[in-house]
Amino acid sequence: MFLGLDSSTQSLSALVIDPAAGTITCQLSVNFGKDLPQFDAPSGFIPNGEHGEVHADPLMWLEAVNLLFTKLAEATDLSRITMIAGSGQQHGSVYLDATFDQRLAALDPAGQLAPQLSPALTRTSSPIWMDTSTSTECAEITTALGGPEEVCKRSGSIAIERFTGPQIRRFSKLDPDAYAKTARIHMVSSFIASVIAGKSVPIDFGDGAGTNLLNLASLDWDPALLDATAPGLGEKLLKPAIATTPQGPVSPYFVEKYGFSPACQCALFTGDNPASLVGMGATSPGNIVISLGTSDTFFASMPGPKTDPNGFGHVFGNPAGGFMSLICFRNGSLAREALKNELGIDWTTFDITAIEATKADAGKNLTLPFYGPEITPRHDFTTPVSKGTPAFEAGTQPYHRVRALLEGQFLNMRLHSEWMEVKTERIRLTGGASKSNGIAQLVANIFQAPVERLEITNSAALGAALIAAAAAGHDLPTLQDAFCIAADGSTILPEPETEAIYNETLPRYKALLHATIS
Ligand code: XUL
């Protein structure tokens, strides 16, 4: 059996697969806000950060590991797990001193992880992907490299606020002493992986490409980017590797405390989106994945690294080899939730009733779908939000606002994915909101492609479990054929009459967007 973990923005989840039986035998989750209220992070991050800072407490992630494994040990026989892999919210970073590895090796199973590892932290909080505080550092890195094209050519993305490199640079400037004491920098993925392996393990190519530091041609840290980012940075990072590389046995801490076999091995952790590419059965061309989570993401495998000329999209390593493209929209579920709360309606009313009731109005009420700073397009939408055309704003009805927000989100996605030049033959939808038939129909109509949903919604944790099995020698495509299957009756076809409507709406949406942000 193989265990996949997913340490995402709002929760830590586990999923166990039995490849011989072709079944998922256990799925569990710890929600940071609900299950660990002592950290005062209802959505998984520390609220009210200043200057665009969004940080999380790494001790909360460690506490979640203990809680999740306690639940797992009750629910399943962990001695049957052969290999563990995982994924983490991308870009976030953890800063540790030279004692980290010794502390990992000496963990006392009688105690919890957080108090034993906290003395190794050189930075008490971890910047995460929602952070927008590093515009100055992005500009500095870009200038040092000679322009955005050069950063993008090397790393697959222009210098981006949430990416790990600019975040490291800001830390090195704000607190040079603490930076100097930092012997090891981990991403969320490699931090949790290291705790489980009982020693520091590398960052993988999937998550490593989200740092503005990994050279996509050499698949190693880029010397010029390292130099432009912070002093002595290369020594604080381990050489990156592909996620399916076994790293040795699980830490004795987990053997003694939770009943793992000492023979159980650890593979690497990757980013949540690259893991999701695996879990959605989309590691080879032909499928587009849209993931509706805290952020919405749009991604697909790609044979070679092709970059976004506008600089919004990214290229990451594909855990199955090769590359993937990804576009991230910060105003995902948080925007849908904000409007739902503002209107005082429940999800059923939001998803089904509102979309059904306003069918005849497809494409009529244009709205920008932003409730706060956005990544794609990169803009600080700080003032209230989903701004529509004046006529729409004047005559707004609650249900129309739901349709307009959702149409705005997916028109924005269609517009900003044009550079990928992939024919959208089939879309696989995942994440919490993918359960909604109303939303699935809108996606099918706006992209004019069939939309499939898999039985499981946590595709990152499934992807991680499949990576674990692949690391143990199982054939990944065969595993994907068995596990990544569309749920019966879940496929939604586009309504052909909407094709012309959205073809005509897209340029109008583009004009509204440009009029607002230029
Ligand atoms: C991707 C991104 C987000 C996080 C969410 O670039 O920033 O999708 O990975 O966990």
Describe, in plain words, how this protein is organized in 3D:
The chain has about 525 residues and is an alpha/beta fold. The protein has two domains: about 270 residues, ATPase, nucleotide binding domain (Nucleotidyltransferase, domain 5, 2-Layer Sandwich), CATH 3.30.420; about 200 residues, 2-Layer Sandwich (Nucleotidyltransferase, domain 5). The protein is built from 21 helices and 17 strands. It has a six-stranded mixed β-sheet, sandwiched between helices. The chain has a five-stranded mixed β-sheet with strand order 3-2-1-5-11. α15 crosses α17, α15 crosses α18 and α17 crosses α21. The radius of gyration is 22 Å and the shape is globular. The model has no long low-confidence stretch (mean pLDDT about 95). Bound molecules: D-xylulose. D-xylulose binds next to α13 and β15.
